[in-house]
Amino acid sequence: MGRIRGARPVAAALTAAFLGVALIGFAPTLNPLDLLLGRGRPVVLDDVVGLPVPGVRSELLDAGLDVQTTSAFSLNVPRGAILAQDPLPGARLEVGSKVTLSVSRGAVRVVVGDLVGSPLADARRSLDEAGVVVEVEERPDAEVPAGTVLAQDPGPGLEVRGDGSVRLVVSTGPPQRPVPEVDGRSLAVASYALGAFGLEVVSVRGTLATELPPGAVVRTEPAAGTVVAEGTPVTVIVAGDAPPTPVPAVLDQDAAAAADRVRSSGFEANVVTATPDEIALVVLAAARDGRPPPELLPGRVIIQTPEVGAEARPASVVTLVVAP
Q1: What pTM was estimated for this model as a whole?
Q2: Of 3.30.10.20, 1.10.10.10, 3.40.50.1970, 3.40.50.300, which CATH number belongs to 246-322?
Q3: pLDDT confidence of 228, banded at 50, 70, 90?
């Protein structure tokens, strides 16, 4: 009986030692009690996207994980909620493993700049990058070039969310309209009709290849029905010899631009350099009329013949005298 009693303490000690070695060998930490209490075992990561970050962070830290956070704007995930995680859900992590949580900063807010007068491509670039929807409304405008912003809503300096929208009114250029049908009409009636459509008669030419009575309109260039912008120059071709038309006023204009204007009106242009006598006549004429002395800028028209307001037949020569 005494060996048996003596043997029991020895056996108990050996058993305890064996269990201790086993626990140390299989436990992630050096403390065998961690395994018995469930501490240090691998953690299976749940799906935490959409959850508030404080609670998730606290649980992960309690599990012995290293929690890192980043932030990003999001149109769908509320501010302060998790919008992404790394590793993905289902990953088995050891104690001390790093978990990165991307936290939503909410929708980005954009301060709208002054976009009026800017090309549409430039105006929408910053808005597109922020995810703002750009609504474009087109509107003709006789003065603002096509593709230029005429108006905006919201106005400059106001904020818009990344999931909001900005409305831009964009010019399509001068209003488009068809050239009216004026064939067979008199030149006076045709000129009135073309002017009523916002078009400008810049020259009149005659033609004998027609059965229409003299002075009747044969056709227009551009032709009737052609869609053109407001202010487009139109040439009218009439039956017989074309009647005289006013010579365009080109004084003080650059020689090249003045010559182009004369030719587009149906005349020939002859550009010459002023002589000293012609310059003296211009100065004397200004003094006689009580006008200040002319600037006589080089290359500018100082005399035109026929003079301003005179009429001449198409293809007549208009002489342009320019300052040296």
Answers
A1: 0.41
A2: 3.30.10.20
A3: very high
